[in-house]
Amino acid sequence: MKILKNILTIMVIIILLFGLTDIYAYDGLVDAESEITISETLVNGNGEISLTRNIKDYEMYYQYVEIDNELYKQIRKLKDELLIIQYYNIWEIDQTDENYDIYVSAYLYYEDKYNEVADDYTENRIDEIQSIITSLLPDYTEQWIRTTNNKINIDLSKFIGIKDYVVWVKINTEDRTIYDAEVYELEGTKTNNNDDENQKPGINIDLQDEIILPETLINGEGTVTVTRNIKNYQMYYQYIEIDSELYKQIRKLKDELLVAQYYNIWEIDQTDENYDIYESAYLYYKDKYNETVDDYTEKRIDEVQSIIISLLPQYLENWIPTTENKVNIDLSSFSGIKNYVVWVKVEADGRNIYDAEVYQLEGTKKENEKPVITLEDKVTLPEILINGEGTVNVSSNIKNYQMYYQYIEIDNVTYKKVKKLKDELLVAEYYNIWEANQTDENYDIYESAYLYYKDKYKETVDDYTEKRIDEIESIIIGLLPEYTENWIQTSNNKIKIDLSQFSGIKDYVFWVKVVDGDKVIYEKNVYEVTGTKKEDDNKPDDDNKPGEDNNKPDDDNKPGEDDNKPGDDNKPGEDNNKPGDDDNKPGEDNNKPDNNNNKVDNTNKDTSITKGDTTTSSKKMPYTGATSTIMQISIIGAIVMSIITFIRMKKIR
C-alpha cells in the first residue's frame, strides 16, 4: 500500500507539472510558451535575452518605448501579483520549506509595497491579470534594433532622472515570429551641467579626447582615432543633415575652440613649432571671420562647448556599426553641397563615449540624372520575393563590389502601371534577343512573353524600336519615387522586407545600388507582397500573447481552483489559428498562345509565362495544445496501467 501511495503521489506531481508548463512559467506578456526570457533588471542599461534550446537559426531584435510612470506602476503591480501566484503554485506542487519561504517573501513584499494582499490564486484571476497587462502595453513600432549577441541596451547617458520603459523583443525564425516584453524603471547617468536638463551628450563628454574624428572626409570617408587606453570596444556612427546656417555657426565656434586649444598647448610647451601652429590657426580665424580670438580661458572654452552642444541636433537611435573605425557618407546619393553632423559612439568598459563633428560635402551625383533600366542586365533583381526575400544577380565582370538596397511603398495604381510597362519592356527585350540570334529557343521565349502580355492586358506589343524602349524606361522612372539616402547594405546579395510588420497586400519599389570602384549601378523592380502580421490592434495578441480566448488553450494544463487537480475544461479551445485558404495560388493558366497575330506563327504551344509578385509562404499546422494534452493522457494512462498491473501481480503472489 505504501508503494501504491508513492506511485500515486508521483503521478499527481507529474500531472501538476504538465499543468504548470504553459502558464506558470510565464515570465513575460506575449511569449505564452516561455521560449524567451528577458532579464528582470538592467545593469547600467544592459540586459540579456535567453531562448529555449528548440529555437535555432533565429534573428533577434529589440526596441524600447518610453512609458509614463503611472502606467509602469500599474503593470509592475500586476506582474508582482502574478509572481505571488506563480510561487504559491510551485509550493503547492512541491511543499518544501524553501518553496514556502519564497512564496511568503513575495507575498509579504507585495503586502508591504501595495498595502493590500493577494489572495486569489485561481485560474480566472491569472487570465484576468494577463489580459489587463496585454491591454496596457503600448504597441511596438517598426523601428527594431537587431542584436547578434542576445543583449539589449538602453543608453542611460542620454537622459537625467528616472524614466520608465517597456522593452519589446522579437524573434524571427524560419516559420514564425515570437514576441515578448518586460518593463523597467531606470535612472539616467547624463550629467546636468549648469542645471541644463536639456543639454545633449556630445563633445563635452569626451574631455580627454579619447575619440578623435577626422577633420575632413575624403570622398565622404574618414577614420576615427581611439586612444590606446580604450580596448575591446564597439564603434557606431550616424550622420544627420543640417542646414548651411547651422553648419556655419558650429564651424565658427569650433574654429575658435581650435585657436584656444593651440594657444594653451603653446602655453604649456613654448616651442617655435607650437607657436607656429597657434599663430596659423589664429590668422586663419581672423581672415575667415574678420574678427580675433582673445579669450583663451577655461571659462570661455566651457562656454563655447556648451553653445556647440546646444546647437547640435540630438543623435538618433539608428546607429551604423563600423568594425574598421570608418565613417562614410555616400556622396553618390546627392548632388550639390550638403552639410552634415557626424555622431560617433564608442561602447567600452561599461560606458558610452560620444563625439561629433560637422562637415560640408559635395555630392557626386549628376544633377537631374536618374538611373535607367538597361538591357545589359549587369544587375538583375528577382522577379518575385519568396517570404519577402530574394537574391540580386550581378554579372561576372563586376568584381569587388558593395551592394545596397532600400524599399519604398507605392500605391496599387502606380504598381499596376509600372508592372504593365515592365511586361511590355520584357516583350521588346526578348524580341530583340531573337532578332540578334534567331534560334527556336529564343523565339519561343519571345512568343511566350508576347502572348502573356496580350492575354493579360488585352492588347498587343508592336513597337520594338530603341526609341520605344527609351520611352518606356523614361515613363517608369517618372512614375516611381526616387531612392533616398537610407540604404541598407547587404553582403550576400539578398534583399528583404519584413512581412511581419504589416497585414494585407502592399506594393513596393525596391532600389538596388551596386558600387564597383568609382562606378555606381542602379536597378529597381516593383513587387506586390502580402504581410503576415495579424490585424488585431497591431499587437501580436492573436499569435503570441496569452490572455486572448482564441489564441491559447482555454484552460488546459492548469491546476483547478480548489484542489490543484486538472479541471474538466482542460482541453484546448477551438482552433481559430489555422491558416486561411491559400490566396497565394497562381490564377488559372489562360496564357496560351493564339493564332490571331501576324507576328507570332501558329504554333499552338503552351509556352505561357505565369507571373506574379506576391510572396509565398509555407503553411504549417498551428500549435494548439492538443498534442501536449494527448501526450499527457497517454503518459497518465501508462502510469495507471502500471499501477493496476502492479496491484494484480501483488495479489497473485
Structure, described:
This protein is an alpha+beta fold and 653 residues long. Helices cover 34% and strands 22% of the residues. The chain has 12 helices and 23 strands. The protein has helices at 2-21, 69-93, 97-114, 123-136, 244-268, 272-289, 298-311, 412-436, 440-457, 466-479, 541-544, 626-652; strands spanning 36-38, 46-51, 59-67, 145-147, 151-153, 162-172, 177-187, 211-212, 221-223, 225-226, 234-242, 320-322, 326-328, 335-348, 351-364, 379-380, 389-391, 393-394, 402-410, 488-490, 494-496, 503-516, 519-532. The protein has a 4-stranded antiparallel beta sheet with strand order 4-3-6-7. A hairpin with a 7-residue loop joins strand 1 and strand 2 (46-51). Helix 2 (69-93) runs antiparallel to helix 3. The longest helix is centred in the last third of the chain and has 27 residues, at 626-652. It is flat and about 90 Å long.
